[in-house]
Amino acid sequence: MRKGGPAVIAAFTILLSASSIAAPTAQATRTPPAETAAWTPVLTPLDPRRETVKRNLSGADRSALLNDCWPGYLCVAAGEGDGQHTVYELYYCTERSLSNFIDAGALNNNQTGNAVTRLKDQQGRVRRSIAANEPERVVGVDWRPIWYIDPC
Asked: CA-to-CA distance for 141 and 116, rounded, in angstroms?
């Protein structure tokens, strides 16, 4: 019996070691997946007298705000990276700087008259012009090359 004792102890020790190695792996598979990284689209300057920003909007709320953009306004939408959206309602003709406007977005140039919105790159060159009241009211925008918006 004495000869079997050390063998049993050694087998038991190996079994404990193997289970302690396997335990962290099993625990790691139960941890939740990493959250999606989100960002905050920022447009400056924003004049609080007649301009607003609405954040953390669903896709349906974003679409409703773009489609119902007030006459005389430029409504601009950008994603937040987590399925939510930010919409700016711009009134004044001040050139704006953009940050964290990443990937796809949209705008509705519902200004009056011949107001043309100009989307500009990092060097200030016009990359796209969008006339007021275009036939397709809500226009898709690739924000990646755009650094500035000149509303009118």
From this structure: 15
Residue of 112, 110, 117 lying closest to 148 (CA atoms): 117
Contact 138, 108 (CB under 8 A): yes
**CA atoms within 13 Å, Cβ hemisphere of 124:** 1
Q: Are 96 and 143 in contact (CB under 8 A)?
A: no
Q: At residue 38, what is the residue type?
A: A
Per-residue pLDDT of the chain (152 residues; tens, 9 = 90+): 434 544 434 443 333 344 333 333 333 332 333 455 799 999 999 999 999 999 999 999 999 999 999 999 999 999 999 999 999 999 999 999 999 999 999 999 999 999 999 999 999 999 999 999 787 899 999 999 999 999 99
For the record, the structure tokens of 147 come out as: 């650094």
Query: Which two structure tokens, joined as six digits, stand for 143?
Result: 């924000």
- Length in residues, the chain: 152
CB 147, CB 98: distance < 8 Å:
yes
